[in-house]
Design a protein that fits this description.
With about 200 residues, the chain is an alpha+beta fold. It has helices at about 1-20, 95-110, 150, 160-165, 165-170, 175, 190-195, and strands at about 30-35, 35-40, 55-65, 75, 115, 120, 125, 130-135, 140, 145-150. The strands form 5 sheets. Strands 1-7 form a two-stranded parallel ribbon. A two-stranded antiparallel sheet has the order 2-3. Strands 4-6 form a two-stranded antiparallel ribbon. It is globular, with a radius of gyration of 23 Å. Mean pLDDT is about 80; it is low at about 185-203.
Amino acid sequence: WSKSLLKLTYDFIDRSIASSPEPPLFAVPRVQFVEAGLALCHNQASSKPRAKTGSTWAVFLLEELIEGSDDMFVKFIHNMNANPLLNELDYGYDMAEFFVFTQHVQYVKTGKLAFISDYQGIIVLLTDPQILTHPYVFFICSDSILINACDIFGEGNIEASISKFEDQHACNEYCEWFGQEIFVKEVNDNEAAVNDDEVVVEN
């Protein structure tokens, strides 16, 4: 899911740049998620009478090694908020800003239904992402059973994070250059009435 959403983002980026008369004034980072796969261990010929040759006795989930010191590993954005986890002067903040933009693209391109969160890794090689999905999306697992989207992507799929995305997200230079929709918080009738009653006192 994460690789698919990231590919969707880069497809959008590449098409936008190709169709623009001028290239962006900034470099677009190129990142990827680690490769992963299952390793199955099979029984070999054994002297044990009940050990069936060729049967699977262990399964391992293998993930590409991220090389480098612990200081190089950064968590850029967590799944509780759509803004960088880092401060402006922190190492990796520029990358975090790019990841904020990728969330914006994914949110819009999926019809406001999903985006990647928990961006973490060593700048160009990322691992352990979380997909956030709208709480009203359901997954049909059989003819009669519906599973809530929170179950699809585990406990890390925080409903509030996607429901509040438009309120939390702060557009940056990437969003602006690539023409992303600027989210404006609507003012309800009560707030408008309060604002109309305000009196400004000048000294």
